[in-house]
């Protein structure tokens, strides 16, 4: 059977626009809260994040931690803390237990900038933060959790467009209430495919079948393969086998692989296939 090749299509014009908008927002803040998806802790990062952010201090959140194995995640936590030299906080899609730690770290990382401003004779002001990340890693949910306890909109600031709204989280921290979207590129198709697995790529940019096939092939060679086979009640992790087993048959007695692909992707995204980290842990 001919193997479908996954190709994720992005458009350079959209990327350039996203980069421009992100840089405009970055100029307004003292600290950046970068959100990554714990299921792909490397692939949901941006290779040139340091260049993009310049000298802005960064706080790294490994979000959706409830969807992955805690023991494996602990290894990634230590690895990212060591390699990025940034504070790393593990957060879940639901629950607010981690919020005070996020706020505390954001304030601490901003303090050198605040001190520098005060040294120039300016009065102390709250730190200014923004949340950035790839699409659908949970940026908006992080913002919503942070702002839930404080609905104090403080409006536009001097030199800030009217569209940029700020929320006072506490007397020491203001948060831009719109996220910064890190633009995705298509240089690395393996990374792009993993982003598609977790819905970080628009469905307009790919076809479900080759993406679902690539996911099943990756899972087939993982430690989770047997559990997933038991979930689908099949010894063959293919769209055809899963469709046939569920009696999803279309005209001509053919397995409905398109319908199956959509369900396989949904099963993975909603955690029904297990608590899985798809990125391979670096050997160095």
Describe this structure in words.
This protein has ten helices and nine strands. With 284 residues, it is an alpha/beta fold. The strands form two sheets. Strands 1, 2, 3, 4, 5, 6 and 7 form a seven-stranded mixed beta sheet that branches. α6 crosses α7, α7 packs across α10 and α9 crosses α10.
Shape: elongated
Into which percent range does the helicity of residues fall?
40-55%
Biggest β-sheet strands, sense, barrel:
7 strands, mixed
As a percent range, the share of strand residues is 5-15%
Oligomeric organization of the protein chains: single chain
Indicate the mean pLDDT.
86
**SS-based class:** alpha/beta
Per DSSP E runs of 2 or more residues, the count of β-strands stands at 9
Determine the number of helices (DSSP H or I, runs of at least 4 residues): 10
- The radius of gyration is 21 Å
Order of helices and strands: HEHEHEHEHEEEHHHHEEH
Distance between the termini: 37 Å
Low-confidence spans? 154-162
Describe the structure concisely for a colleague.
The chain has helices at 12-26, 49-53, 70-84, 99-119, 139-148, 189-197, 208-220, 225-232, 239-245, 257-269, and strands spanning 31-37, 58-63, 88-90, 127-133, 166-170, 173-176, 180-181, 249-250, 254-255. The protein is an alpha/beta fold and 284 residues long.
For the structure shown, list the relevant keywords:
two-stranded antiparallel sheet, 7-stranded mixed β-sheet, 41% helix, 284 residues, alpha/beta, 10 helices
